[in-house]
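ping. complex inputs:
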Amino acid sequence: MTEIQQLYQEVILDHNKNPRNFGELPSCTNHAEGKNPLCGDHIDISLLIENDVITDLKFSGSGCAISKASASIMTSEVKNKSILEAKELFEQFHDLVTCAKDKEIDLDKFGKLAVFGGVREFPARVKCASLAWHTLISAIDNKNEIAITE
Amino acid sequence: MSILQNINEIRNDFPILSEQIHGRDLVYLDNAASTHKPLQVINSISNHYEHNNSNIHRGVHLLSQRATENYENAREKVRNFLNAKSTQEIIFTRGATESINLIASSWGRKNINAGDEILISTMEHHANIVPWQLLCQEKGAILKITAINDDGEIIFEEFEKLLSEKTKLVSIVHVSNTLGTVNPIEKIIEKAHSFGAKVLIDGAQSVPHFKVDMQKCNCDFFVFSGHKLYAPSGIGVLYTKKVILESMPPYQSGGDMILSVSFEKTTFNELPFKFEAGTPNIEGAIGLGFAIDYITNLGLENIKKYEDELLKYGTEKLSQINDLRIIGTAKEKAGVISFVLDSVHPHDVGTMLDLDGIAIRTGHHCTEPLMKRFKVPATSRASFAFYNSFQEIDKLTESIQKVIKMFG
Ligand SMILES: Cc1ncc(COP(=O)(O)O)c(C=O)c1O
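pong. complex structure:
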């Protein structure tokens, strides 16, 4: 695969075109907003948390293919996970997109998130991929501040 | 000299243009962000360090004299370039941003009072918004914004309506870095002056593309950055009419800007040194002088003629792409094509083009209010310099088509 094919895998292009869990969640218990000041990406995440489990979630906003696909895949992945599991997944994902280029990574253990394995080759795009995740964490913590990808 | 006929020679003056990017020839279309430097400029900097390096205005020894002479020579080149009356009106700064901040904090603090108005336009760079916002907050003054039409042109009638005796300053971009619009500054300045307002022109994007003339436009303040004019970064210029400079308090203070210091009283140095505290960017100023020599040699008329052709060709080519919308369609434009694609976010366009060796800028271009005006989160922007070729525009077009196909 070329670098570009690795970054924009079919799965990513598909999620970009048909994002899952896109929209509003009026019954939400938690909500947060995330922004990437550099490129103007903007995301809104709403969660329904019941007994420490994320039973439903939706996102809306505008952004590039990487950020939209990341949000879409993230929502599918953390649905019905406990808060603790979601946070663990965030840590794994963070490592996947930010670790050194030459670090060996076992993509198999990342499941659906593995499609973001190419992102670390593109430092300028790491923030796009991680915006949704940062916003998720801030929604879980119900912080009333705008998450930024720092 | 015809640029088209000498394009290969000209390109050879810019070593970086031979760089390979992801295994492809570099196609550099991000000149509005920063331009590349010709060998003449690069060599002037090494030459300074190899032969003349020393502090300026301070030494009796030969090196210091040489360095001072070269630095002051550069000031004279800038004066001539802008057609200012005197080198006393040319202040070296770090760039356009610092030049605007200097005016805001020195002239602005002294002259802007509660209830006064400062007038800017929708298409300003953040550098020409935030300093005025802060000043207005501090003074209880009011920041007014003059609107633009859908082509990205200032609506002159609206501008006239906003002017009044309360208007103390009009601060307008000469050429928009996002839209490429060339604003009718002479008309703006004349009208503003009739209300007694002073006028600052942000020339960061105009000086690289065509001749500007301080006597003809009669502005009070004019700012630009070296790095967008084929010179090093960290050097810029503030032009201010002498009568105004004479009434301005110092901006920063310290060495070089004083005549004499005792613990009781300090006498400030004469113009322009009063506004250049501390050791300046000596090699930057010298490099700027050489950059001005370089473009003067090419001829600004030739540069404008060639770049207008590039812009026309680029606009035609990009307009033929379905799905592509050009943002900024003013009648008078220079050097810039901003665009959005229906199906692909600018950030993805930027990454894809980069892998084809094509450097463009994507994002809000430090003009967030302007993005809001056009209801887009961001745009992709191709911006031209005289070293760009028609073939490079073909490559841009092909690459964009490839992107659309992949995301389509
Ligand atoms: C129109 C305009 N004004 C001001 C600036 C600020 O220039 P600098 O960052 O060199 O100070 C820029 C640079 O992007 C610009 O395009």
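Residues B 95-97, 125, 127-128, 173, 177, 202, 204-205, 225, 227, 366 surround pyridoxal-5'-phosphate (CB under 6 Å).
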